[in-house]
Amino acid sequence: MMDKMRRILVYVCKDGAAPQRAQFVQSITGHFSDGGGDEVEVNCSLDKNQFVLRRADRGRGIPLKRPAFCPIKHLSVTEAAAIPLDVQRRGTDVGVAIILQTANQRVLLTRRAKELRIFPNVWVPPGGHVEPDETLLDAGLRELQEETGLKLEQEEVSPKILGLWESVYPPMLSRGLPQRHHIVIYMLLLSSLSHLQLQASLSPSPAEVSACLWADSRLVRAIVSAVDGGEGEVPVDDLPSSISVSQVSTEGALSDSTLPVSVLISRAPVSGPDVERVSTGTKFALELWLKSLETSDL
To answer: Do 179 and 88 touch, CB atoms closer than 8 A?
Structure first.
């Protein structure tokens, strides 16, 4: 019972009805989309430890998206029934991920430690679960500090929600039945420091993070063009063949290293073991970040 009390869960609200707790096997995006589209606009609020989603008028809300291959979207009745009851009763969890933009317009990406239970060895922004009685910003700043050692103050970051992503693990039905179902809130924070100034304070938690990198918009454009589930060559323009990253040792020491750009533009494999790559939800968030850069430059 304790577990249930401690987790913040997603509730959905339709046509003015009272919020209902979302079911684990219910597609949240599908709940709001007419005709089964993969992207909708919603409003969200965190109220009394319930994360409540409501449909928004077009142009008035924030994007909520799932991948076309979302396992929950494609679950058959038989497959849904085969999910263990303790998993079915979990509901849908809430996470916050921080798109930290530096003064010189780079963003921080971290590679999840390979020992982690979900999405090991995948590149994502820092983030994690929302705890009871936290605001979304509190949760984002706490996770940023726990995972990277970077401590930012609430009054200096100008938070903005870029979008929401419906995330399921494993990410494709070909890799097994869903074990976890999240709505991830991607929140943009602005730092007044450059990536080199922030790098000096970086001290990642080796239990969670195995490497870090600061991506500029040129690299991000290549990353988002490697659409998961898509085909064809990814245009890498004039990108170098490798980029510098900081490796994190098991003791938490940082060392300079390089990573082939080809790793960051890998697509999620349709079958077989997963590979080191940027997560699909992260690509969605980075695309929204590029749009926010364009509008802030006007």
So the answer is: no
